[in-house]
Structures are given as C-alpha cells and as structure tokens.
C-alpha cells in the first residue's frame, strides 16, 4: 500500500518547539555572522554608525540567503536545514581590497555582486570541479583560512593594530599605537578566552554550543563595568530601520578583484558541496545532481543579494550542519524560522549598535577561538587524508601552506610584480588554493566524480562537529 509519509526534512513542528530550535541555530552562528562586517568595517576605518549598519545589513542578508536556501525558490535552494552566513574565505581577499584606496568598500561590493552572478551561472558545472578539490586540497585551504585570520584575532586582543598611519606635514607615516597590548585589555581578552574554555569543558549541550557568544557577553559586562564599553551610540540608534540596497553608493567593478572573488566563490561552492552531501547523510535525504545545482545556485543568489544589500559572500555555516547532527532535528522549517529571526534582527539597529560597541579586546578573546576553530576544521578534514600510504600528500599540504603564509610573513614579497595582481597575490588563501589544486593534480591526478563525492562527504562529516 502506498504511503504519503512526509520526509523528516519537510516536517513542520509546533510553534512552541520550532522557535527555541530556530533561536538555537541563530545563536550558534551569531558570533560568526557578525565577525566579518566587524573585521572589514574596522579595516576600512569606518565610523561606528557605518559599522553598525554593516552588521544590520549582514544579519538581514543572512536571513534572506537562509530563506533562499532552506525554503527555496523555483530552481534555487537545497531545501535542507541550512543556515547561511558570510564566508570567512572571503575575508583575506577583502582585506587586501580594503587596503587598496582605488578599490575600497564600493570595489568590494562590485566584486561580490559579480561573484554572485558568476556563482549563479556556473552552479550546474561546479560539481564537475569536485575532483579537483579532494580533502587534501579543501582541508589545506580551510586550515590556511584559519591561520590567516588568527592575525586579526591577535590584533583584536591587543586592542587594535600595533601601528597607526598618520599624516604629518602632508606625509603619511606609521607610528606605534600607544594603546596596543595594554595589560588591562589583555586581561579582558584572557578572561573571555577562559570563560569560553570553561563553558566548552563543563557546559552541556546548548550552553557548550553558544560558548563563544556567552564568552563575549561576559567580557562585555566586565568592559562595561570598567568603563571601556560605551553605549551612547546604542542609545542614539533607532529601534527600527530598513536596510536599503546600495546604502554606500554605486558599486565599482575592477577586473582583478572580480577575478579574485570569483575564485573565492569556486572554493566556497566546493566547500558547500561537501556540506550538502554530509547534510544529506545526516538527514537521510537523497541529494542528486539537480539538488546540488539548486543549492550551489542559492550560494550565488545569496552572494548577489549580499552585494546588493551592502554585505559580503554567503555560504552554508558548518557549525549549523553540526548542530543538526547533535540535535537530531532534521526539519528545514527550523532554519526557515531561523532565517526569519535573522531578518528581524537586521531591522533592529539598536542590536547592531550594541554589537559594534563591544570593545576589540573582548572580541580578541573570542576571535582566537573562532578563527582557531576554522584552522582546526581544516586540520580535521586532513585527518581523512592518506599521508602514510601517499607521501606526496605531505608535499601538497606543506608547499600550499608555505605559499599561503607569504603575505603574512613577507608582505612586500611580491612588490616588484604588476600592481594589478596584488589583490590576488596578497591573499594567502587564494595562493594556497591555487598551489594545492595544481600540486594535487600533479602528484595524484584527478579522481573520478563518484570518488570525489564520497571523499567530500566523508571530509564534511569529519569537520561538522568542529
């Protein structure tokens, strides 16, 4: 007798159960979601109100992208329990763009919009590139992302950059930052780190999942008590406001930044493939070629929406994939509700102003954990790689990581190459990606598509709980 049983992925839950589960997904990703606009906004030295707007725009676009992915549109969306957020893979290239005066924020938005369109167009073909990105490549790239971002977390813990640029007699120069690495700030960062570690060790279930967020809250309370955290901007911010497209002006389109962001988009979509396959295993939902294309197309649509609504490239958040496995709740309507919550948070400027008011030293203690977790995810993916039976994999990782470190340890290494290439060459993430793909193809060849899917699914499953 035929059955019309609804798959657990499509089951609706009663509201009293749905909302707490949705809020849990939001809390698990919240710290990571607001980290990127904080990083980019402060790198561009934007005023506090603009950084607060970036955070509002990011939360709003997070909600839109999540709805596109989980609820779905015709031909778009994987329709699985996925939460979308800004990918950390884009931070390194965007920091390089932010440092170039001729590119700046509007150039970043132009590259994001172009990358979103690129993602929509190439989505059906990306799965064919999966054999170029086995775990030895994706693990290396993600590890380099985490290592590269550690510099940001360390400087946050120090209270800002160690040197400041000032113009004296019309000549710009670098001067030591007198407030850098003050003992009081280091102590707050250390307390935040200790709180997070304590919650990870002794907290259970949901408390452990939101340890980073609770650590930031604890640090903010201490900073407010010491008079380091100020709330004037929070009081002045309106309760409700609309996130309008192109708030900062008309996006600018530059060839090299666009090419750089398109490469980031390919890396992000390959990572998404692994996450979708792992999520299909967790939920028991069959993921075919058409479903993968819809999910990847949603990455492109989310990124396009990000560029339009004043934010950055989007991808599925791995910590939320892990949360699905931990809770066993497979309904996509939970993340649909989470997307609605993110939309509402994006329309509350006071919330964004409160996040922007958190001192850098507080974020520093959490940043060491957040960015270290990204590196740890890459390391965990690499544990599925056969190093003993195939020593060539060691060379792939070693040389790709070495190239990825060049912009960090020797910023002027490429200074004699054409200036137009600097946004590409100054991104350790993209350098490591290119070198890892090339060396893997050289040493190991290209695996079959079926084998690549199996490896990607296994690697994503290995990384989902990090």
UniProtKB/TrEMBL annotation:
Residue intervals passing through the bilayer: 21-40, 52-73, 106-126, 133-154, 180-200, 207-231, 251-279, 333-355, 361-382, 394-414, 429-447
Annotated organism of origin: Roseomonas alba
PANTHER family, sorted: PURINE PERMEASE C1399.01C-RELATED (PTHR42810), URIC ACID TRANSPORTER UACT (PTHR42810:SF4)
Subcellular location: Cell membrane
Membrane topology: Multi-pass membrane protein
Family according to the record: Belongs to the nucleobase:cation symporter-2 (NCS2) (TC 2.A.40) family.
Protein's name in the database: Purine permease
InterPro entries: NCS2 (IPR006043), UacT-like (IPR017588), Xan_ur_permease (IPR006042)
Key words of the record: Cell membrane, Membrane, Transmembrane, Transmembrane helix, Transport
Principal localisation: membrane
């Amino acid at each position: 007798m035929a059955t019309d049983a609804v798959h657990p992925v499509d089951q609706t839950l009663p509201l009293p159960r749905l909302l707490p589960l949705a809020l849990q997904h939001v809390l698990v990703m919240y710290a990571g979601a607001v980290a990127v606009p904080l990083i980019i906004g402060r790198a561009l030295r934007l005023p506090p109100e603009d950084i607060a707007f970036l955070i509002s725009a990011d939360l709003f676009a997070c909600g839109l992208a999540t709805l596109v992915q989980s609820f779905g549109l015709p031909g778009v969306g994987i329709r699985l329990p996925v939460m979308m957020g800004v990918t950390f893979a884009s931070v390194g290239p965007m920091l390089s763009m932010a440092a170039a005066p001729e590119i700046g924020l509007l150039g970043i938005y132009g590259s994001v919009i172009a990358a979103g369109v690129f993602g929509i167009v190439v989505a059906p073909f990306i799965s064919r590139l999966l054999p170029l990105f086995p775990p030895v490549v994706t693990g290396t790239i993600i590890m380099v992302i985490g290592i590269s971002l550690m510099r940001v977390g360390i400087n946050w813990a120090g209270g800002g950059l160690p040197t400041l640029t000032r113009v004296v007699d019309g000549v710009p120069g670098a001067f030591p930052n007198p407030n850098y690495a003050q003992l009081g700030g280091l102590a707050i960062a250390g307390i935040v780190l200790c709180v997070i570690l304590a919650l990870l060790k002794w907290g259970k279930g949901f408390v452990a999942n939101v340890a980073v967020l609770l650590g930031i809250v604890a640090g903010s309370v201490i900073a407010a008590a010491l008079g380091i955290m100020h709330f004037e901007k929070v009081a002045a911010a309106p309760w409700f406001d609309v996130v309008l497209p192109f708030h900062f002006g008309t996006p600018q389109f530059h060839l090299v930044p666009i090419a750089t962001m398109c490469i980031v988009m390919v890396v992000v979509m390959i990572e998404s493939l692994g996450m979708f396959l792992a999520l299909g295993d967790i939920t028991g939902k069959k993921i075919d070629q058409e479903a993968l294309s819809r999910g990847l197309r949603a990455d492109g649509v989310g990124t396009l929406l990000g560029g339009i609504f004043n934010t950055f490239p989007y991808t599925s958040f791995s910590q939320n994939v892990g949360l699905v496995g931990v809770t066993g709740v497979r309904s996509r309507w939970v993340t649909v509700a989470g997307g609605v919550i993110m939309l509402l948070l994006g329309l509350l400027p006071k919330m964004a102003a409160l996040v922007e008011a958190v001192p850098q030293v507080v974020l520093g203690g959490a940043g060491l954990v957040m960015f270290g977790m990204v590196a740890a995810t890459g390391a965990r993916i690499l544990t599925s790689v056969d190093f003993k039976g195939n020593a060539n994999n060691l060379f792939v990782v070693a040389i790709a990581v070495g190239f990825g470190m060049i912009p960090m340890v020797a910023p002027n290494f490429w200074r004699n190459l054409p200036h137009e290439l600097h946004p590409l060459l100054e991104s350790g993430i993209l350098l490591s990606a290119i070198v890892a793909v090339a060396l893997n193809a050289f040493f190991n060849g290209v695996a079959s598509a079926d084998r690549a899917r199996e490896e990607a699914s296994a690697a994503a499953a290995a990384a989902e709980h990090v």
